[in-house]
Amino acid sequence: MMTGKENSAMTILMDFAKPCKGKLIGSVVLAVLGALCGMIPYIAVSRGIIMICHEDYAFSKLAFLALIAFAGYLGQVWFGTFSTMKSHESAFIILRNIRVAITEKLSRVPMGTILDTPSGKFKTIIVDTVEKLELPLAHMVPELTANILIPVLMLVYLFSLDWRLALISLVTIPVGAFCYMGMMKDYEKRYARVLAAGKNMDAATVEYIGGIEVVKTFNQGERSYKKYADAVAENETAKVTWFKQTNGYYVMGLSILTATLVGVLPLGSWLFINGRVEAGTLITCIILALGLVKPLIQALQYTDSLAMVDSAVKEVGDLLDEPELVRPTERAVLADADVSFDRVTFRYKETEVLHGISFDCAKNGMTAIVGPSGSGKSTIARLIASFWEAESGCVRIGGVDVRNIPLPQIMELVSYVSQDNFLFHLSIRENIRIGKPEATDAEIEAAAKKASCHDFIAALPEGYDTLAGDAGSHLSGGERQRIAIARAILKNSPIVVLDEATAFTDPENEAVIQASIAGLVAGKTLIVIAHRLSTITKADKILVVEKGNVAAEGTHEELLEASDLYKELWKAHMQGRDTAEEVAG
Ligand code: ADP
């Protein structure tokens, strides 16, 4: 597989291009044929000119040459077009392969990596970066081939006509090469600034739009806008600076390179006056010299595209190089569906947040995890769902270390209902069906009833057929979570991890959540990360987590007796409820 960093962009690209190797070779062959045909009009015209200068002509001969020139031109256009078609097909195959590789990769990297990546980055790579490759990939092969090959062929023909004029037509090349080198000096570094500024602007835009609600609510417009405006300004400055640094050389090179006649015209005239070259040859050489440089300049314009392709492909390579969760492929045989932590430690980068915790969550029961904010509750939930691996110690499901259970099997075993429940832009019915794609409508409604969301769904304008996107903005955090619970009920996996939504604290909502949790519990290992203690007073076991350690465990009543921290949490919760009721009242 890929090993991004040590691989050059070209190797990575070639890897993706393997399935369309035939098409790419076809594209090159057609482009070469097109370039060869492109020479025919020049040769035909030069033959015609030489004939005319020799006064050795007949209309039929000239008409024949014109026909040949036309056929050559047609050949150039047709072969060129077919070559471009083939290279477009290849480009689309390459883009598809890159996109598939990225999505497959995303399914193999730990979920935690995805959560830790700034939102927008994957979207930018999959959509924008990959899209940027289309144009250069689709056009580079035929156009570069033609634009390099045609001048080379012309030069060969020029040499065959008159080596002195051929040589003098090259006189501007060293000056042009000097300008090109000037343009290319530190090119990668300078162009990298342009690319970085563009990416930074994309990220700032995504953040600004994504956080617009907070920006408006907290009147942060100016500050957040400044970040966005700065990114836009830097994007402009980077481009203008790059343009200024490059453009002088570019214009100079362009003016000098194209001035092939500077040498050809005086030398040619001198040779002609002295009878050393024939009029026909001179005219032909002038025409060829005129046409020599333009394709080369067009080829040079691919410099930017090549740098851009290089950077885009490397970015894709880096993503494909992200460490993966290494899990076996063979299904594990589990004794049961209980969950246990055995001296588990875990750190986010530098900071250790779980310090060797051990506990068991029995099957057919509800284990609640409570504790102050930041104590590590959600981290525990995510370790059960294999979002990350434990640093040391081991998480077991049914007695088996999760590292020995294939990820698809974990996905079957565990339903993780997070706080942040994403609803797709589908009907509510389809959103619930995600839990079990083959579920009937009746099963979906039964699950919704169990999750206590049937009533509010039925009250929506189009009931279960309401698009979540339309209803989405009206659904409360609690309602969204109940839809996610309905999904989990439908999925019917033996382990359910519920990270309770913190959004709603009013007692009415609590009762509904409690009812929906009851819908989940039957016959399952239910683990609830509880932010409202009253929803879990009936739990079979409550773990009190404090600063990454299990401070106490027991039932609600036992803990009220034995754990000071639990007592404090309970007191704070009851006070919070009273305040909520007062506010509501
Ligand atoms: P809780 O659910 O109890 O509020 P968490 O498990 O979310 O606690 O967090 C435990 C600690 O880990 C906190 O200090 C939090 O700031 C930190 N933390 C949580 N998620 C991340 C993350 N993705 N990267 C770095 N630190 C994190």
Automatic annotation (TrEMBL):
* InterPro entries xrefs: AAA+_ATPase, ABC1_TM_dom, ABC1_TM_sf, ABC_transporter-like_ATP-bd, ABC_transporter-like_CS, P-loop_NTPase, Type_1_exporter
Q: In which compartments does the protein localize?
A: Cell membrane
Which domain of life does the UniProt lineage start with? Bacteria
Sequence ranges assigned to domain ABC transporter in this UniProt record: 339-572
In terms of Pfam families, this protein maps to:
ABC_membrane (PF00664), ABC_tran (PF00005)
Instruction: Name the UniProt key words of this record, in alphabetical order.
Output: ATP-binding, Cell membrane, Hydrolase, Membrane, Nucleotide-binding, Transmembrane, Transmembrane helix, Transport
UniProt key word Nucleotide-binding: yes
> What is the topology of this protein in the membrane according to its UniProt annotation?
Multi-pass membrane protein
Sequence intervals crossing the membrane: 24-45, 57-79, 141-159, 165-183, 249-273, 279-297
Family annotation (SMART domains) = AAA
Look up the EC number in the record and give it.
3.6.3.-
Q: Which cellular component terms (GO) are annotated to the entry?
A: plasma membrane
In its UniProt record, a GO molecular function of this protein is: ATP hydrolysis activity
Statement: the UniProt record of this protein carries the keyword Lyase: no
The ABC transmembrane type-1 domain sits at: 25-308
Protein name in the entry: Iron import ATP-binding/permease protein IrtA
Organism of origin is Faecalibacterium prausnitzii
Q: From which lineage does this chain's organism come?
A: Bacteria, Bacillati, Bacillota, Clostridia, Eubacteriales
